[in-house]
Design goal:
mainly alpha, 9 helices
């Protein structure tokens, strides 16, 4: 008999004969690794809360997520200026998870704000929108991203947040609805022109 790990491997992973069976095995292993990573992250977060050094319960946010109005965002920004509320927001956002930087940012942004509120902001406040980076909430977004993706740089996070906000109009049929409306208007216009000609 070979080493212990070989016996374990042979019993856990069946011997694959075809390419499709190999791909199925790899997909299953990938899923299991991702699931274990999520569990590990959850345990890590709960351990951090338990080892915080205080016997008081973990701080909770007064505001409910996702934020849907600019007034709710202003209240959240005032709340986050306190240290405990910032920690609570970071912990709340960081459990959104994801296995790539893009997925983590998308999940965090979806947890933080509705798509309608995302349409009001851009990363730096361009094109007549408000700047999200200038708000205290943005620091919580960066910290939450870094809890999931350790090597994420400021530029990487800002670029992904910027992209998420820029695409808010396209999500949930934003521009597509406008295109359908334009086509309907053109159809009505051409029907009126045809009826006037006849």
């Amino acid at each position: 008999m070979g080493p212990y790990w070989m016996n374990y491997f042979v019993h856990v992973v069946p011997i694959c004969v075809t390419d499709s069976q190999v791909l199925k095995c790899l997909a299953k292993l990938t899923y299991e690794v991702q699931h274990m990573r999520k569990e590990l992250l959850a345990m890590k977060n709960s351990l951090k809360c338990a080892c915080n050094g205080s016997s008081s319960p973990a701080p909770e946010l007064k505001s409910t997520l996702p934020l849907s109005t600019e007034e709710e965002m202003a209240i959240m920004c005032d709340e986050v200026k306190e240290g405990m509320a910032m920690d609570a927001l970071v912990n709340t956002l960081s459990v959104a998870g994801g296995d790539t930087l893009v997925k983590v940012v998308v999940n965090i942004m979806r947890k933080l704000m509705t798509n309608d509120l995302a349409k009001v902001y851009s990363a730096c406040g361009r094109k007549g929108k408000k700047s999200l980076v200038a708000l205290p909430v943005y620091k919580a977004i960066e910290s939450a991203v870094r809890k999931n993706i350790v090597g994420a740089t400021d530029c990487d996070v800002r670029a992904k947040v910027s992209r998420y906000l820029a695409c808010a109009m396209d999500r949930e049929g934003g521009e597509r609805k406008e295109d359908v409306y334009r086509q309907q208007c053109l159809g009505i216009y051409w029907r009126c022109v045809r009826s006037a000609d006849s």
